[in-house]
Design goal:
β7, α9 and β8 form a beta-alpha-beta unit. Helix content is 41%, strand content 18%. The strands form two sheets. It has a six-stranded antiparallel beta sheet with strand order 4-3-6-1-2-5. A six-stranded parallel beta sheet has the order 10-9-8-7-11-12, sandwiched between helices. The protein is of the alpha/beta class and 406 residues long. Keywords: Detoxification, Dioxygenase, FAD, Flavoprotein, Heme, Iron, Metal-binding, NAD, NADP, Oxidoreductase, Oxygen transport, Transport. It comes from Halobacillus dabanensis. GO terms for molecular function: FAD binding; heme binding; metal ion binding; nitric oxide dioxygenase NAD(P)H activity; oxygen binding; oxygen carrier activity. Pfam families: FAD_binding_6 (PF00970), Globin (PF00042), NAD_binding_1 (PF00175).
Length: 406
């Protein structure tokens, strides 16, 4: 996507779309919620692609509303939102979204705008948004085409879903279990970038549609297997537990096969720089960090790496043994509520929470910072780094689920 993309939109279209920015800021989420409702009513087969848990929680409509708002705001300079386009395109490729899906989405998005805004959605506005959507959709299709080609043409690569055999299932903590996966066809594995994820297709008996979930690869690339480490998701009171995590824990066993798409994701360690790196994780957010950390140890042993992990206590802290084997001074554990056993073992460096004052004592300010975890945790870390005046280009993070805004 470049400035040339907008040359296909005339001045009137650009002005009309930009004029809808205040309306989208106010009604965007109502539009996208209505959009998904209508889309799934008429095309229930698309539930095989979209995460219905995120739909019910409102996360997906909110993420789409943010994207539509950004597209309207920067319709005359779409290169500004190119990073978001690439993030979404990576997710689309991992979910096997195809070009033929875009006209369907466009049709129902325009219907939702018209039905939610009523008379305020004039013919000029609908026409302008139709033209703008066509240009944006073409840009996504073009970016994703390149991603599909790269995924297929790399050594050991594939597109769509490939069956992987679960060769081992290892309990890492009270809440996290690792699954070791190897191709059922015995073929080669493509090398992935540390921090990327897999999409698994859960074909659960009794469910009317498939469930797709992304899980970070939790080991360094180059192994004869892929490893994902999954947290069992317990629902709040009165709500069901996570459908896919419960299935993986309770039903999937060693020897079973699972359809998997090729590794994807634009959140990964930059190994083209020798700048120090600080990895900060909360809870199961340690999985992509562990991949980055192990990779840096193996491939960039001269690079200074600090791994900071926050957990409730030792019982829910996965991969303790791997972290214990780290070089002294490189791993720092923070337990919110350490148990007596945790205190006796003396594993953790700090009780409570990460603070900026403490962070400055263990992390160099000239580092690249990567962080992942619950949204509130990431918001706090991002605020600390900005307060510390760390340049935005050296701050990297990933959401588990639809892309949010910190």
């Amino acid at each position: 996507m470049s400035t040339q993309t907008t040359e296909t939109l005339d001045k009137k279209t650009i002005e009309t779309v930009k004029a809808t920015v205040p309306v989208l800021e106010k009604h965007g989420e109502a539009i996208t919620t209505h959009f998904y409702q209508r889309l799934f009513e008429d095309h229930p087969e698309l539930k095989n692609i979209f995460n219905q848990t995120h739909q019910r929680a409102g996360d997906q409509p909110r993420a789409l509303a943010n994207t539509v708002y950004a597209a309207a705001q920067y319709i005359d300079q779409l290169e500004v939102i190119l990073p978001r386009v690439k993030q979404i395109a990576e997710k689309h490729r991992s979910l096997n979204v195809q070009p033929e899906h875009y006209p369907i989405v466009g049709e129902y998005l325009l219907k939702a705008i018209k039905e939610v805004l009523g008379d305020a959605a004039t013919d000029d506005i609908i026409t302008a948004w139709g033209n703008a959507y066509g240009v944006i959709a073409d840009a996504f299709i073009g970016v994703e085409k390149g991603m599909y080609q790269q995924a297929e043409q790399q050594k050991g690569g594939w597109t769509g879903y490939r069956l992987f055999k679960v060769t081992d299932k290892v309990e890492e903590s009270d809440e996290i279990t690792s699954f070791y996966l190897e191709p059922k066809d015995g073929g080669e594995l493509p090398v992935y970038k540390p921090g990327q994820y897999l999409t698994i297709k859960a074909e659960i008996p009794g469910e009317s549609y498939d469930h797709l979930r992304q899980y970070s690869l939790s080991d360094a690339p180059g192994k004869p297997y892929y490893r994902i480490s999954v947290k069992r998701e317990h629902g709040p009171v009165g709500k069901p537990d996570g459908i896919v995590s419960s299935w993986l824990y309770d039903k999937v066993k060693a020897g079973d096969s699972i359809p998997v798409s090729a590794p994807a994701g634009d959140f990964h360690l930059d190994d083209h720089t020798h700048r120090p790196v600080v990895l900060i994780s909360g809870g199961v957010g340690l999985t992509p960090m562990l991949s980055m950390w192990r990779y840096a140890q193996e491939k960039q042993p001269e690079r200074k790496v600090h791994f900071i992990h926050a957990a409730r206590n030792g019982s829910v802290h996965a991969f303790k043994k791997e972290i214990e084997e780290a070089q002294p001074g490189t791993a720092h554990l923070i337990y919110e509520m350490p148990s007596e056993e945790d205190t006796k073992q003396g594993l953790y460096a700090r009780e409570g929470y990460i603070t900026l004052e403490w962070l400055k004592t263990v992390a160099p300010d000239n580092a690249e910072f990567y962080f992942c975890g619950p949204e509130g945790f990431m918001r706090a870390v991002n605020h600390m780094l900005l307060e510390w005046a760390v340049p935005k280009e050296r701050i990297h993070y990933e959401f588990f689920g639809p892309q949010g805004v910190l």
